[in-house]
Design a protein that fits this description.
This is FAD-dependent oxidoreductase. GO terms for molecular function: 4 iron, 4 sulfur cluster binding; metal ion binding; oxidoreductase activity. The chain is of the alpha/beta class and about 400 residues long. Helices cover about 25% and strands about 20% of the residues. The strands form five sheets. Strands 1, 2, 5, 6, 7, 8 and 16 form a seven-stranded mixed beta sheet that branches. Strands 11-10-12 form a three-stranded antiparallel beta sheet. The structure holds flavin-adenine dinucleotide. Flavin-adenine dinucleotide (FAD) binds next to helix 1, strand 3, strand 6 and helix 8.
């Protein structure tokens, strides 16, 4: 049997034309869309599911990790903070089974620096509410939203994406734009457009996070809690065992999903069937993979570069795993060397494997999303964009760029 079959070529209708198109409606895509729109760009957000939030909502990763450095200093601002506050606008969720604290009131207005030093600026939110609130925010601000739409190809000419090919209920069509943001989490658009990418060689452990109703409350069960990079792993630890998943193969993702479902069922039934105090409340509708494929960009940031000043910083993040480190994120981690009008945001920016574990989390995705969306609104050639112009726009939007600007 032949291993390939020619697909008939065809002309497809152009279904839209925008200044900025963002692929993927996770946290990075949401931040990118809001930022681009706030710069006045005609902006489209394309999402293959019928829900915004990506892993944070459909994936039930409902813990907004810290905006602070763990030493009492807030380091991530702008949309990272705005989205955290939006996520808990109507209340916090009770802590999951690994968290004793879901929100520290000291981080609200009037909180004392002493109290902040001991607690991190993080929150556990309701995934369903957050998804709806994000959707309403985007619509209010005039972002066009296309659900149920997969980006499945790119027409590249002279080092620029001319059009995206999309598939949805209406069939196949093309979308034109001046600039594009890959917020797919898996660098799908970078891959489709022929930009340099890299994969997470170690692969992902099986994660099966779900919500159950127990003890009169909604509780997050975090099965498959950690996927620590090799360099931090203890010999003989749980992290060393078990199958690894690349997250980039359809058959493998299907097997991961079935294995995750089986885990959830077994875990739930281990405490009996349904009772007034025991119910399976919510399972993820997207695979819970952390690191898959990323941009191999103009610069690749490493975790050793904490407290390093970068002239082209677009914002800062802390390290969710421990107090102390602060990272300035260079703009060059967002764009590559091949496709002039494409940049990435969120968990697929250009970082080393060790840095990936830090930069993939929700607040960091919002920081890079805001920068990517702002840049996309300002240019059709990311490498040529004046960094001071981008930085001025980010500062105006409330984003400090350098560690030296932080105070307690
Ligand atoms: C098990 C696990 C635990 C985690 N724990 C935490 C935690 O406690 N706190 C924390 O802050 N972070 C945590 N993370 C990380 C965090 O949830 C994600 O890295 C982050 O939410 C990623 O956001 P993103 O927008 O970059 O990507 P994603 O959330 O992956 O969003 C990408 C979006 O793009 C869409 N998409 C993808 N491809 C296409 C396409 N071709 N066409 C159209 N749409 C497309 C997807 O449907 C999705 O909505 C965890 C992750 C996992 C897997």
């Amino acid at each position: 049997m032949a291993h390939t079959i020619p697909e008939p070529s065809r002309d497809v209708p152009i279904s839209g034309e925008y200044d900025v198109v963002i692929v993927g409606g996770g946290i990075a895509g949401i931040a990118a869309a809001l930022a681009a729109r706030r710069q006045g760009a005609k902006t489209l957000l394309i999402e293959k599911q019928f829900l915004l939030g990506g892993l944070a909502t459909a994936g039930l990763i409902a813990i907004y990790l810290p905006l602070c450095d763990g030493m009492g200093r807030q380091v991530s601002f702008g949309l990272a903070e705005e989205l955290l506050r939006l996520s808990v606008r109507h209340g916090y969720e009770p802590a999951g089974d690994h968290h004793s604290q879901y929100f520290c009131p000291a981080w609200l207005e009037g909180g004392s620096p002493q109290a902040r030093a001991g607690e991190r600026f993080e929150a556990e939110f309701n995934a369903n509410l957050f998804a709806i609130l994000c959707e309403q925010q985007l619509l209010q601000e005039g972002v066009a939203l296309l659900y149920g739409t997969s980006v499945c190809g790119a027409k590249v000419e002279n080092g620029r994406i001319k059009a995206l090919f999309i598939e949805n209920k209406s069939g196949r069509s093309a979308i034109l734009a001046r600039s594009f943001v890959d917020a797919s989490g898996d660098a799908d658009l970078c891959h489709l457009a022929g930009e340099h990418t890299a994969t997470f060689a170690q692969g992902n452990v099986l994660a099966s996070w779900y919500f159950q109703h127990t003890g009169g409350r909604f509780a997050l069960r975090m099965l498959g809690f950690a996927d620590i990079p090799d360099k931090y792993k203890q010999p003989g630890s749980e992290a060393e065992k078990g199958r690894r998943y690349t997250g980039l193969d359809a058959q493998e993702l299907s097997e991961l999903t079935c294995a995750s479902h089986a885990n959830i069922l077994a875990d739930f039934l281990s405490k009996g069937g349904i009772s007034p105090d025991h119910a399976l409340a919510n399972i993820a509708t997207t695979p819970q993979v952390r690191m898959t494929r990323r941009l191999d960009g103009a610069y690749t940031l490493d975790d050793a570069q904490m407290h390093t000043a970068f002239e082209d910083s677009i914002g800062m993040i802390g390290d969710w795993r421990k107090p102390g480190p602060v990272y300035e994120l260079p703009y060059r981690t967002l764009y590559g060397n091949r496709i002039a009008n494409l940049c990435s945001a969120g968990r697929c920016i250009s970082v080393t494997d060790a840095m990936w574990d830090i930069s993939r989390v929700i607040p960091a995705c919002a920081v890079t999303g805001q920068a990517a969306g702002t840049a996309a609104a300002l240019t059709g050639n990311f490498a040529a964009l004046s960094v001071p112009v981008l930085q001025a726009a980010l500062r105006k939007a409330g984003v400090p760029l350098h560690e030296g600007e932080l105070f307690r």
